[in-house]
Design brief:
Largest sheet: 4 strands, antiparallel
Number of strands: 4
Shape: globular
Radius of gyration: 15 Å
Order of helices and strands: EEHEHHEH
Strand order of the largest sheet: 3-1-2-4
Protein name: Meiotically up-regulated gene 113
């Protein structure tokens, strides 16, 4: 609270209340191509700076969906990941497969998951819950 990272999602001024986006990235690592689904107020910055992907590694922002608040974005993102863990755990890439190439432990999917992830993102874009569990 003191640093301003936590506040009201409706009237505050931190990430919870400012506009955000759900994104889908493609990252072409030497070990193989993967997809990264997440949320950020600045997907381009997230891709290059915060994920620690080496310069020269081919990457693409496949899709971004604007979301009114960071709080709504994180809720949609978490619901989407939960659905993937429940119904498609085989499409989740374990950290051991990409190691230090991406600065995250989770939220990385095989390329085969693209149609499923786009379908879930279509729901979010239409204002529907990503999925009901």
């Amino acid at each position: 609270m003191t640093s301003g990272d936590v506040d009201c999602a409706r009237c505050g001024e931190s990430w919870t209340s400012k506009p955000s986006s759900i994104y889908l990235f493609r990252i072409d690592l030497p070990s193989g191509s993967v997809l990264k689904l997440g949320y950020s107020s600045n997907p381009r910055k997230r891709l290059r700076h915060q994920l620690g992907i080496a310069h020269g590694t081919p990457t693409r922002i496949l899709r971004t969906i604007p979301i009114l608040t960071g709080h709504q974005a994180v809720c949609a993102e978490k619901s989407t990941h939960a659905w993937m863990r429940r119904y498609h755990p085989d499409l989740i890439v374990p950290k051991s497969d990409y190691g230090a190439a991406i600065n995250t432990r989770t939220e990385i999917y095989r390329l085969l998951s693209a149609p499923i992830l786009h379908g879930l993102l279509d729901r979010i874009e239409r204002g529907l819950p990503p999925i009901s569990l």
